[in-house]
Design brief:
By secondary structure, the chain is an alpha+beta fold. It folds into two domains: 25-33 and 87-161, PH-domain like; 40-81. 33% of the residues lie in helices and 32% in strands. The chain has helices at 40-59, 63-81, 144-154, 164-171; strands at residues 5-11, 14-20, 25-31, 86-92, 95-98, 101-104, 108-114, 122-127, 134-138, 156-157. It has a four-stranded antiparallel beta sheet with strand order 3-4-5-6. A four-stranded mixed beta sheet has the order 9-8-7-10, covered by helices on one side. α1 runs antiparallel to α2. The two termini are 32 Å apart.
Length: 174
């Protein structure tokens, strides 16, 4: 949604109120992460790999590690089969809102809009937090300019990129 502001302009004929087209907030919904549909072959390959690692761990008399590998493989399969939920995003003059969590601009370092990403435009935001140093938000194509208008005044623009490990994992379907 784009908010509208009114500015007061005084001229010789009196006071005129002009409407500015400055966005105050932009909201949209998108999946919480990029989902790659995995076929039966992917799950079959995961099962073979997990079973092979479990057998190797048992051959080395490490049953606890074998159990850990088996549980990790099961959790990975369940996570891979789950479809991402649709969550609301918002860029406001107060901060960046992801689902119900507001990240004020004072806790954010810089931003970059990657319009060349094959998944569509992505907003990368560097955070001052240790646990989430880089937030990647999918943004609608028609709102790129409005989002940049809001963020330009609040954060500095910096060339940011997703880590190489994330791109490699996406190649394998994670």
């Amino acid at each position: 949604m784009i908010g509208e502001l009114y500015t007061e302009v005084t001229c010789s004929h009196g006071t005129i109120f002009e409407m500015e087209q400055t966005p105050r907030s932009i909201t949209w919904e998108a999946p919480e992460h990029h989902h790659v549909e995995k076929g039966n072959d992917w799950f079959f390959a995961l099962t073979i790999i997990i079973i092979a690692f479990v057998i190797v761990a048992i051959l080395y008399d490490n049953t606890l590690f074998a159990l850990l590998i088996g549980l990790s493989g099961g959790a990975l399969a369940m996570s891979a089969a789950k479809r991402p939920s649709i969550i609301p995003y918002a860029i406001t003059v107060r901060g960046v809102k992801i689902d119900d969590q507001l990240y004020p601009h004072s806790t954010l370092g810089s931003y970059h809009i990657d319009e060349e990403d094959p998944r569509g435009p992505q907003l990368l935001i560097k955070s001052n937090r240790k646990m989430m140093p880089l937030m990647v938000l999918p943004i609608p194509v028609d709102q790129v300019d409005n989002i940049e208008t809001i963020l330009r005044d609040k954060l500095e623009e910096e060339e940011l990129a997703e880590p190489l490990l994330v791109k490699v994992l996406e190649l394998f379907g994670f």
